[in-house]
Write a structure and sequence with these properties.
Elements (H helix, E strand, L loop, with lengths): L2 E11 L2 E12 L3 E5 L6 H9 L5 E9 L2 E2 L5 H6 L2 E4 L6 E5 H12 L8 H14 L10 E2 L5 H15 L3 E5 L7 H14 L5 E5 L5 H4 L4 E6 L2 E6 L1 H10 L2 H9 L1
Parallel strand pairs: 3-10, 3-11, 6-9, 9-10
Antiparallel strand pairs: 1-2, 1-4, 4-5, 7-8, 11-12
The structure holds adenosine-5'-diphosphate and magnesium ion (MG).
Magnesium ion binds next to helix 1.
Length: 251
């Protein structure tokens, strides 16, 4: 079992403190949902954990299996098994999904190690079968003219190919149509298992009807103010966030 421990994490961008002391441990095999209103620092937290250069960790620690990752660059963190999904849905015209996946897998290998082409394709097709993705998909250019659902499909496939130990999935505020929602939830449900820990950031309670989290955390103003099991997500759906804010303010 692996663990990703976020310990009293403080994150700033520019001179503004955004994440103000988050403590959270994720073990492989667990799905943690982080919910909260817009602008409370959820994406900032995920990007800081992944080592995004725009975000400075000013206090606390991020610890993978007992070892601090703070002195690791983002690519080293990725090689250590941290995967950040859904942040960069950019188009790469002329680069096929298959070649993009190959480059992504190659980039995670150690220096001097070469990808084995036939093994790569065998694994790619296995993952595509698992995720019920049509083989024709591999020849499409990355994100070019993709629907929301197709973008999600390529991100989930990338995650399946990279086999991270911890996936940080950030459902950004752009609307997910029902197709994309299904792709994400089916993909996560296929990939979840004893060797993967998932931090699923969303403000869609709806998503958690499809992906049943083991733990739910509410983030407000840079702090996790409440944690619980999936019933907390249902309560938030019914009551919104204001009661949690009030509880937090009066504590
Ligand atoms: P959430 O994901 O919870 O909606 P974010 O982490 O995206 O929240 O943003 C939290 C706050 O940090 C917002 O006020 C946002 O404007 C600010 N912020 C995030 N990234 C940057 C950045 N790169 N530069 C300046 N401000 C930022
Ligand atoms: Mg966000």
């Amino acid at each position: 079992m692996s663990s990703l421990e976020i310990r009293n994490l403080h994150v700033s961008t520019g001179d503004k403190e955004i994440v103000k002391g988050v403590t959270l441990t994720i073990n492989t095999g667990e799905v943690h949902a982080v919910m909260g209103p817009n602008g409370t620092g959820k994406s900032t937290m995920a990007k800081a954990i992944a080592g995004h250069p725009d975000y400075t960790i000013t206090g606390g620690d991020v610890i993978l299996d007992g070892k601090s990752m703070l002195d690791m660059e983002s690519d080293e963190r990725a090689r250590a098994g941290i995967f950040l999904a859904f942040q960069y849905p950019s188009e790469i015209p002329g680069v096929s999904i298959a070649n993009f996946m190959r480059a992504a897998v190659q980039a995670r290998m150690s220096e001097g190690e070469e990808i084995d082409a036939s093994g790569f394709y065998k694994r790619l097709y296995q993952k595509m079968d698992l995720l019920k993705i049509d083989r024709k998909f591999t020849s499409r250019s990355v994100n070019e003219g993709f629907s929301g659902g197709e973008k999600k499909r390529s991100e989930i496939l990338q995650m399946a190919m990279l086999e991270p130990r911890f996936a940080l999935m950030d459902e950004t505020d752009s609307g997910l149509d029902i197709d994309a929602l299904r792709v994400v939830s089916d993909g996560v449900n296929h990939l979840r298992g004893p060797n993967l820990g998932i931090l699923l950031i969303t403000h869609y309670q709806r998503l958690l009807g499809y992906i049943v989290p083991d733990f739910v955390h509410v983030m407000i103003d840079g702090c996790i103010v409440k944690s619980g099991d999936r019933s907390l997500a249902l309560e938030l759906e019914a009551r919104g966030y204001d009661w949690v804010k009030k509880e937090f303010a009066s504590a």
